[in-house]
Every structure is written in structure tokens, then in C-alpha cells.
Design a protein that fits this description.
The chain is about 20% helix and about 35% strand. The protein is an alpha/beta fold. It folds into three domains: about 90 residues, Beta-grasp domain (Ubiquitin-like (UB roll), Roll); about 90 residues, Elongation Factor Tu (Ef-tu), domain 3 (Beta Barrel), CATH 2.40.30.10; about 140 residues, Nucleotide-binding domain of ferredoxin-NADP reductase (FNR) module (Rossmann fold), CATH 3.40.50.80. The strands form four sheets. It has a six-stranded antiparallel β-sheet with strand order 11-10-13-8-9-12. Strands 17-16-15-14-18-19 form a six-stranded parallel β-sheet, with helices on both faces. The chain has a five-stranded mixed β-sheet with strand order 2-1-7-3-5, with helices on one face. Strand 1 and strand 2 form a beta hairpin. The structure holds flavin-adenine dinucleotide and FE2/S2 (inorganic) cluster. The site of flavin-adenine dinucleotide (FAD) has 27 residues, from strand 11, strand 12, helix 2 and strand 19.
Length: about 350
């Protein structure tokens, strides 16, 4: 199916395979279509259908809440073309970075599977070809027999790998998280599409890093820490991470944090914030080099934001209410320019 998108400056044309989401087809062809969640919740991939037949996909997608049926508005991340189509995309089409990797479809196999806490598990997915992604990016995964894709950020980083490492938080009533937790999924296969996302880290930008993560939001930030560490970034640049979980039993990746802190004690600051219980006495002893605090992660992190100075890139990831609670004060009170904030809202 030929998809045509007319913008004032240019007409984009690309082919979509039978059954393929229009967003996937466009991104795969290198057309930088607008999107954020890629999974039907945010509405940023809106398009109007001028000509052609479309299957709209997920009828209850929250992202199309205020869409006008009469104008044939739909979500490119959900809809599938049934004939050649001509679309209007109201949002700006922003060019990719030169080093961006065009996403693609793969069949992945789960090759490692372990529980990290009672409601967070980690698995690795092996894909048939080696490739790379920017630290901070995500893939969308489709589990067998489930409708639709779910977004998960990679935890690992490598310049060439066939392995994607993910953490999955148990989401009450969530279909994919139920599937992942219900039994050991080693050797199961998944359809995956990626890499996607712009909350990315690029060493050549030379920023200090300020990061705030709630729960599984730490996934993409771990990938950024991993990439930065591989290029010895913390020799010359600082990172301050605030990572919020409920209780000491919910903490994971402490070993990985300690390893990075030990290598660069002066430039790496890791703050673990417990919302529901105080730190243990051992944690408070300070022996492991990490700082342990109590409270809501956004409230503990905000006062520290300005201490980093003007050359800082801010990364936020986690539940949408946490990210929303941070963006406004960062921009309005702390006067952080919007282009110094990169975020992923976990809807
Ligand atoms: C950019 C990004 C990165 C993320 N990274 C992580 C991460 O690293 N770790 C983590 O734990 N969480 C992450 N999340 C959150 C994670 O994607 C959600 O928790 C997950 O979607 C829950 O899926 P579920 O099946 O368990 O829940 P459900 O409530 O069953 O499904 C939730 C999502 O599945 C999709 N969906 C449901 N039904 C349909 C349908 N019929 N058709 C099409 N789509 C459907 C929708 O996107 C919906 O929002 C991320 C989210 C985003 C946006
Ligand atoms: S990108 Fe399609 S709804 Fe978020």
C-alpha cells in the first residue's frame, strides 16, 4: 500500500506492508513521523485521512479521545492502511538526527529471565541481526496472542548487539505484564519493533546529566549510564541520579549503581528515594557510596536541580503523573530551557 503525506515543504511517500501500522511503515522508511508513546495513549501521532481506506485499530485508544470522526482523524501508531492512502499530519515533522537508526520489525526470543523484586522482572530478547540504538530508546513488544504493542526501554547499551535487555514492572490487570509474570518465559518469542524514542544520550553533546526515575523508569537511564561509562564519560562530566521506589525491598540495580559510583566517586551521585519506608540502618551507614533518602522522588530531586549549573541535560522517566509533576516546575520555576529536558512518560 502506498502512503502519501503532504506537507507544505514536501510530500512524503512510503510503502506499508499488509497489516503494518502506518507509523511503523513510515519510520521504517526513514520518514520522521511525529510520535511519543507509539502505543495509542498520547495522541501525538494524529493524522487525517483524505483518501483511502483505513482500519483504525484499537477502538478505545486513549490517544484519540478528542479526535473528530467527521474529519477521519486517527492514530498512525494504531491504524493500518487497507488501500493506498493520502494523509494530512498536522504536527511538525522534525528531522531525525543524522546518526538515528531506522527502526524495523524483528522476531525476538527471550534468552534470559529473572525476577529482580516481587513486582519487577528482567528479561533479555535476542533478535536475528546485530544492530545498535541510542541509550534511552525503547522498543515496542507484542506478546503472543495479545492485541497491540507495549513500549519498553532498553536497559543495556552496546554499539553492536543482538540482545535487548528489558525490565518489566507488574502492572495490576495489565495483559502483557500478567503474561510476563505468570510463568518463566524463557525461549518464548515476541514481535518487536524499534528502536524508537528521542529521550536519548549522545556523548558528543558534552552535557552533565541530571536524571529522575520513578520505578521501572530507571530502565532507559541505566542504558544511558552504561553508555556513558563505556566511553569514560564520567571522567569529565557529572551525573546526578534520583531513583524512587517504595521500600528497600523494591530496590533493584544497586550493584550496578555501586560499580559506576566506585569508578568515579567525585562525579557520580546516586540518590535512592523510598516513598513508603525509611532506608535500612545499613543503607544509612553510607558504606556503599549511595545516598538513601525518604519521600517522593520528584520532591527530593527538585531542590537539587539548579546545583548542576547551565550545561546540564535533564532526563525524566517513569509514571506519567511523576513526569508531569516535574516538567512544569523545571521550566517555570527553575527556568530550564525545554530543549534541556528529555522525558518518557510511562502511561
Ligand atoms: C516510551 C515508554 C517506555 C516504557 N518503558 C517501560 C519499561 O522499561 N519498563 C516498564 O515496566 N514499563 C515501561 N513502560 C510502561 C509500559 O509500556 C506499560 O506499563 C505497559 O504498556 C503496560 O502493559 P500491560 O499489557 O501490562 O497493561 P495493559 O493495561 O493491558 O495495556 C496497556 C497498554 O497496552 C496497549 N494496548 C492495550 N490494549 C490494546 C489493544 N487492544 N490494541 C492496541 N494496544 C493495546 C496500550 O498501549 C495500553 O496503554 C514504558 C512506556 C513508554 C510509553
Ligand atoms: S504515538 Fe500514537 S498515541 Fe502516542
Amino acid at each position: 500500500m502506498l502512503i502519501e503525506i503532504e506537507k507544505k515543504s514536501k510530500t512524503y511517500r512510503f510503502e506499508a506492508n499488509a497489516g503494518e501500522k502506518i507509523l511503523h511503515a513510515g519510520l521504517r522508511a526513514g520518514v520522521p513521523l511525529p510520535f511519543e508513546c507509539a502505543t495509542g495513549t498520547c495522541g501525538s501521532c494524529k493524522a487525517r485521512v483524505n483518501q483511502g481506506d483505513i482500519d483504525e485499530g484499537w477502538p478505545e485508544a486513549p490517544g484519540k479521545e478528542n479526535f473528530k470522526a467527521a474529519k477521519r482523524e486517527m492514530l498512525m501508531c494504531q491504524c493500518v492502511a487497507q488501500t493506498d492512502c493520502n494523509l494530512t499530519v498536522p504536527s511538525k515533522i522534525k528531522a531525525f538526527r543524522e546518526d538515528d537508526i531506522n527502526p524495523d520489525h524483528h522476531q525476538g526470543k527471550i534468552t534470559d529471565y529473572e525476577m529482580l523484586t516481587s513486582d519487577v522482572l528482567r528479561f533479555e530478547v535476542k533478535v536475528p541481526i546485530e544492530g545498535t540504538f541510542h541509550a534511552g530508546q525503547f522498543f515496542v513488544l507484542q506478546a503472543p496472542e495479545l492485541e497491540g504493542y507495549r513500549a519498553y526501554s532498553m536497559v543495556n547499551y552496546s554499539q553492536s548487539t543482538d540482545t535487548l535487555e528489558f525490565i518489566i514492572k507488574k502492572f495490576p490487570g495489565g495483559e502483557l505484564s500478567n503474561w510476563a509474570f505468570e510463568s518463566n518465559r524463557l525461549n518464548e518469542t515476541l514481535d518487536v519493533f524499534g528502536p524508537l524514542g528521542r529521550a536519548t544520550f549522545h556523548p558528543d553533546e558534552g552535557h552533565d546529566l541530571f536524571m529522575i526515575a520513578g520505578g521501572s523508569g530507571v530502565a532507559g537511564l541505566m542504558s544511558i549510564l552504561e553508555h556513558a561509562n563505556q566511553v569514560n564519560y564520567f571522567q569529565d562530566h557529572k551525573v546526578e541520579l534520583y531513583f524512587g521506589v517504595r521500600t528497600p525491598n523494591d530496590l533493584f540495580f544497586a550493584e550496578r549503581f555501586r560499580a559506576i559510583k566506585t569508578q568515579h566517586p567525585d562525579n557520580v551521585s546516586i540518590n535512592i528515594v523510598f516513598s513508603n519506608e525509611p532506608p535500612t540502618s545499613e543503607q544509612l551507614s553510607g558504606n556503599d557510596g549511595l545516598n538513601y533518602l525518604t519521600g517522593f522522588v520528584h520532591e527530593r530531586a527538585l531542590p537539587a536541580v539548579l546545583e548542576g549549573g547551565g550545561n546540564t541535560m535533564h532526563y525524566l522517566a517513569g509514571p506519567a503523573p511523576m513526569v508531569d509533576a516535574l516538567i512544569r516546575p523545571l521550566i517555570l520555576d527553575s527556568k530550564i530551557p525545554a530543549d534541556r529536558i528529555r522525558y518518557d512518560k510511562f502511561n
